[in-house]
UniProtKB/TrEMBL annotation:
<keyword id="KW-0472">Membrane</keyword>
<dbReference type="InterPro" id="IPR004117">
    <property type="entry name" value="7tm6_olfct_rcpt"/>
</dbReference>
<keyword id="KW-0812">Transmembrane</keyword>
<feature type="transmembrane region" description="Helical">
    <location>
        <begin position="129"/>
        <end position="150"/>
    </location>
</feature>
<feature type="transmembrane region" description="Helical">
    <location>
        <begin position="294"/>
        <end position="315"/>
    </location>
</feature>
<dbReference type="GO" id="GO:0005886">
    <property type="term" value="C:plasma membrane"/>
</dbReference>
<keyword id="KW-0675">Receptor</keyword>
<dbReference type="Pfam" id="PF02949">
    <property type="entry name" value="7tm_6"/>
</dbReference>
<feature type="transmembrane region" description="Helical">
    <location>
        <begin position="182"/>
        <end position="202"/>
    </location>
</feature>
<dbReference type="GO" id="GO:0005549">
    <property type="term" value="F:odorant binding"/>
</dbReference>
<keyword id="KW-0552">Olfaction</keyword>
<feature type="transmembrane region" description="Helical">
    <location>
        <begin position="35"/>
        <end position="55"/>
    </location>
</feature>
<feature type="transmembrane region" description="Helical">
    <location>
        <begin position="266"/>
        <end position="288"/>
    </location>
</feature>
<keyword id="KW-0716">Sensory transduction</keyword>
<keyword id="KW-0807">Transducer</keyword>
<dbReference type="GO" id="GO:0007165">
    <property type="term" value="P:signal transduction"/>
</dbReference>
<keyword id="KW-1133">Transmembrane helix</keyword>
Length: 386
């Protein structure tokens, strides 16, 4: 089979591909380079936010589409802005994950190291596939409006009918007459090239940052559970020391989850607010004007942001499941055969692992599939009741 994606150079490294992307954006590495993200955010405000707010829209349908676009695009940028404010917590999180990975590869049984290597490879491969797909979609999104517009001009060379210019983003880009002048449209399309790729890069960075870190914390909890299950194979004179080390590893993993929750709680809060706002804008527009082609365009954005939100909930559920997996491993480890001191330590580990663990949206509620379903169904039930 032909190798298309670049191989993972160091299978023992923790999220190396993600950290390289974050270094490009100024969100990792040298602190003196953190201005890069704020330049990216300023570019987004200058090229997207200000034109949409200051220059308005020619009619209601375009206004609805443009407003939905603004909320959809702001979701990634303002989420990453919230993330940038938590740089110190994020650095502590990654450093602790790296310390745990070093412990797994150096001091623990080979099967645990093999599992973590597989996680590293899977996260790296998935991240690269996602980036390739994201880059392809950004290229398609930039190219197709240009192709459609110029094809319409070639087809209507001898016609006096006005040609509709297909815009990449529904906005009046300052004083460019991109809807009527082909020269201005060409300038607009050239400006949209870095803009579209900036939007794609920031949105992709946000998803990879969240998914990779949540998955890695889940993997560490899985390793704790696997280590508990291996207690039966430890020599009797070393088993109490091994249990103490497991408890210490579990505590470090809990610290990682706490840092994860602290780092991303406001990112998830922004995500759910934006998702709710886009849903409300769609319902309001349908109530006022009925169904149209504009509704279909907005629905695409709604589907994307809803799937993204569900993805966060899915990984949040996986984190909670792995945390309870530690408790299940303790219960199944034939604890009644151990000494009294061992059973006391196992009870401590069991109590810690039974506490609900996960990530929250602004400290209001857990981000998981159950809460996602409750939210959707409760809204539907409320609409039916009214």
């Amino acid at each position: 089979m032909v190798q298309i994606l670049p191989k993972l150079k160091d299978p023992l490294a923790v999220m190396p591909f993600l950290l390289r992307i974050q270094t490009i954006a100024g969100l990792w590495g040298d602190r003196s380079q953190r201005y890069r993200f704020y330049l990216i955010f300023s570019y987004f405000c200058f090229m997207v936010v200000l034109p949409k707010i200051l220059f308005g829209y020619p009619d209601l349908e375009i206004a609805v589409r443009g407003t939905a676009e603004l909320m959809f695009e702001s979701n990634a940028f303002f989420g990453m802005l919230m993330f940038s404010f938590q740089r110190d917590n994020y650095e502590r999180l990654v450093n602790q994950l790296q310390d745990l990975a070093t412990l797994v590869f150096k001091d623990l049984p080979a099967e645990l190291g093999t599992y973590l290597i597989e996680v590293n490879k899977r996260v790296d491969r998935s991240s690269k596939i996602y980036c390739c797909c994201h880059l392809s979609l950004a290229t398609f999104f930039w190219f197709m409006p240009i192709y459609t517009t110029y094809s319409a001009y070639r087809a209507a060379a001898n016609s006096t009918e006005p040609i509709e210019h297909v815009l990449h983003l529904e906005e009046e880009l300052y004083w460019l007459k991109s809807r009527t002048s082909i020269v201005h449209y060409t300038i607009y399309a050239a400006i949209m090239w870095p803009t579209i790729y900036t939007l794609g890069f920031t949105g992709g960075s946000k998803l990879l940052t969240i998914f990779s870190n949540v998955k890695y914390c889940s993997a560490m909890l899985k390793l704790v559970a696997l280590r508990v299950r291996c207690l039966a194979n430890v020599k009797e004179e070393k088993i109490e020391k091994e249990l103490n080390e497991i408890i210490a590893m579990h505590q470090k993993t809990l610290d990682c989850v706490l840092l994860l929750e602290t780092t991303f709680r406001w990112v998830f809060f922004v995500q759910f607010i934006q998702c709710t706002m886009i849903w409300c804008s769609l319902i309001l527009y349908i109530a006022v004007t009925g169904f149209s082609s504009t509704v279909a365009n907005v629905c695409v954005q709604i589907i994307l942001i809803t799937v993204e939100t569900y993805g966060y909930c899915y990984f949040g559920t996986d984190l909670t499941t792995e945390s309870f997996g530690v408790a299940l491993a303790v219960y199944d480890c034939e604890w009644y055969k151990f000494s009294i001191s061992m059973r006391r330590n196992l009870r401590l580990l069991l109590q810690r692992s039974q506490k609900p663990l996960g990530i929250t949206a602004g400290k209001f509620r857990f981000v998981n599939v159950a809460q996602f379903g409750k939210t959707r169904f409760s809204e539907d039930a409320g609409d039916l009741h009214r």
